[in-house]
Amino acid sequence: YSTFALGLVSSFGLAWINTVQANISLTIRQDIAGNVSFPTLYGYMYEDINHSGDGGIYAEMIRNRAFQMNDTGGTPDLAHYSSVNGGGSSSTIHLDSAVPFNDVLTHTLRLDITQVKQGGRAGFSNEGWEGIRIQPGEKYTASFFAKSSKYTGPLTVSIESSSGTVLAKATVPSVSSSFKKYTIELAPSVKTTTTDNVFVISTSTTNASGSIWFDVISLFPPTFKNRANGLRADIGQIMADTKPSFFRFPGGNNIEGINAQSRWKWNETIGPIETRPGRLGDWGYMNTDGQGLLEYLEMCEDLNMEPVLAVWAGYSLDQKSIAEADLGPYVQDSLNELEYVMGSTKTKYGALRASHGHAEPFDLKYVEIGNEDFFSTTYDYRYKAWYTAIKKAYPKLQIIATGGETSSPMETLDDHYYQSGPAMVADYNKYDNHPRNGTTIMVGEYATNVNGCCGTSPANMQAAVADAVFASGLERNSDLVQFAAYAPTFTRDGQAQWNPDLIGFNTEQVWGTPPYYVQQMWSANRADTILQVDAANGKLGPLYWVAGSKKSTQQVFLKVANYGSSSQTASINLKGGRVHSQGVSIVLSGGVNDTNSAASPKNVVPKTSTFNIAGGNTFNFTFPAWSASVLLLDNM
Ligand code: AHR
User: Fold this and answer.
1) 53-76 exposure pattern, b = at least 16 Cβ within 10 A, e = fewer
2) Which residues are paired to 282 by β-bridges?
3) Which residues, 6+ apart, have CB-to-CB distance to 500 below 8 Å?
4) What is the pLDDT of residues 229-260, one digit of tens each?
5) DSSP at 312
6) Phi and psi dihedrals of 561, rounded to 5?
7) Which of 115, 161, 197, 343 is the most buried (most CB within 10 A)?
8) Are 371 and 402 in contact (CB under 8 A)?
9) What is the pLDDT of residue 578?
10) 281 lines ligand 1 (CB under 6 A)
11) How far is Cα 195 from Cα 50, in angstroms, rounded to an integer?
12) pLDDT digit string, tens, across residues 326-366
């Protein structure tokens, strides 16, 4: 059996020659030219699902900051706020639609103060997203808009434990009679991380009275790369750790809309956060859209990812399509969006982007038309309309199709795989004989479901190893497969709508699942050329492999998945090259059902070791049961 892929074997974690009888021999063919691998191969697919945006990767700590709608997209309410009355003072809070903040934020929080007693206070608190995480050494930026009917005195802004211990406080000197933005820094002096905290705005002015209206009440921690309105730093970092090459956004279902009217509208996700109305996302809960088009593009800059921007293409989750004759305004809307992303500051939308703080046009290379349009019967005319208009305006943009049956040119096709372990393993060869006719492949979503799609399947070792087999097959064919992304990327602990997911988090911590570590190992150890591997004295399965080399580092990589319950030893031979006498192995292994969780976030993590190589090109390596391994060899 001969493959264009990697498959290496080493003595797991030990610096001695493995003398165990080999189950298979693998010869890595550095003596013959390999196929060039697309440098974009591994990246992320992102949409707000499983409460992963607001209260997740988007660093905003206040929940329901602008009363856009309630948690499930309905009439706004004051959920997550409570009255604060100390020392016998009395006040109440109300949702006020009679005093809107502006045209899009039509509800405000009104604090009615009856009486503030000497030494007391009146105000309100916000409980955040299952608490507010305060970490040693961090400073927090609080901001809000407020105006008052008659009270002109100071306001105290504080972060407090839920039992009332003040961790940090600062004072806004006065409140104006028309809406004004107040920004203040809070610097808690704490020795340990805590989350059981609330955010409070109050007045302690004796005899204060009257009404004060508030809106866009915000609290930000330091963000990833210190980006304003940016990412939760630990979540940004766990993404960065996989060295991703692309970012497919904003969906997924979440771009489509439950109906056309509720689609993701790019122009409602840009500009100052107080001008964004928010929307009911396709996953059944409110999206603030605080993380919008510009934030996603800046995230690509900060994580060094190529943006793959999906544009809405006239089809929504109610399975209704815009009629061909009516497409014009929607296609134009996408062109406006592209101008916002790529236009010079001399263009209308390029100038708008500049006014939002990013004068430099983004170097967008990839646009996807729709999402999962294989579910529709109308993609042919819709794809044609978008493809033709985009190509005319931006001939260099690479267009990605999400349905196969189109009569217009197809540059890239997005295939999705949510399958059982055996089906994923069977698809190791999926693209081996796929025509190389100029149309490249994006596997824009994939995940192994060991317990059926897509409700309760755990992200366990069996799933992770099947992912590793499948990804190895993609990598072996990465002269054709240009992009591959696991989906969904994130889940908030206790809020999963879809399983498995790559990364879990709660208010305090973030953790990779076993499939995450496979992604990290496969993506961070990237070859530029895929090498043929000849197998002898054994056959494919339970070991699956891909091999490659990287010119800039003179390295050879062998990635091997053992999709089985017994360890397997392979005799590895490198033909056409000699490597240093010591290799490095990165091995992820565990029990078939093992996974990571909030209680045990590092139950399964990769282990890095060294192993010896005899004579510059030969060694045995034993791959543990249910394992995914990367072996690194340094060419001499
Ligand atoms: O990843 C979850 C969902 O799966 C995506 O939103 C959709 O594209 C697919 O059906």
Assistant:
1) bbbbbbbbbbbbbbbbbbeebeeb
2) none
3) 447, 448, 449, 457, 458, 459, 460, 463, 513, 515
4) 999 999 999 999 999 999 999 999 999 999 99
5) -
6) -110, 130
7) 197
8) yes
9) 87
10) no
11) 20
12) 999 999 999 999 999 999 999 999 999 999 999 999 999 99
Give dist(CA 309, CA 307) in Å, integer.
6
In this structure, which residue's CA is closest to atom 7 in ligand 1? Answer: 252
As a whole number of angstroms, the distance between CA 410 and CA 402 comes to 10
* pLDDT for position 67: 98
**45 CA: nearest ligand 1 atom:** 1
Residue 382 near residue 312 (C-beta atoms within 8 A): no
Can you tell me which atom of ligand 1 is nearest the CA of 498?
2
Going through 301-360 in order, the beta strands assigned E by DSSP cover 306-311
pLDDT at 212: 98
Tell me if 253 CB under 6 Å of ligand 1.
yes
**Of residues 478, 247, 526, 272, the one with CA closest to residue 366:** 247
The verdict on the CB of residue 234 being under 6 Å from ligand 1 is: no
Is residue 625 pLDDT above 70, yes or no? yes
Parallel, antiparallel, or unpaired: how do β-strands 366-369 and 398-401 relate?
A: parallel
Residue 178 is which amino acid?
Answer: S
For the four alpha carbons of 189, 194, 196 and 197, in that order, the dihedral sign comes to: positive
**Residue type, position 325, single letter:** A
Distance CA 256, CA 134 (A): 36
Helix 328-342 to helix 293-303 angle (10° resolution) is: 40
pLDDT in tens, 590-624: 999 999 999 999 999 999 999 999 888 999 999 99
Tokens standing for residue 107: 């509800």
- Other C-beta atoms closer than 10 Å to the C-beta of 330 total 18
- Residue owning the nearest CA to atom 9 of ligand 1: 252
pLDDT tens profile 527-564: 999 999 999 999 999 999 999 999 999 999 999 999 99
Query: DSSP letter at 128?
Result: B
Residue 413 near residue 401, CB atoms below 8 Å: yes
Contact 569/606 with Cβ under 8 angstroms? no
Cβ within 8 Å of residue 44, ≥6 positions away: 239, 242, 244, 246, 247, 248, 305, 485, 486, 489
Secondary structure class of 348 (helix, strand, coil): helix
Does the Cβ of 421 fall within 6 Å of ligand 1? no
pLDDT at residue 13 tops 60: no
- How is residue 276 written in tokens? 């964004």
Residue with tokens 């393993």: 425
Beta bridge partners of 589: 627
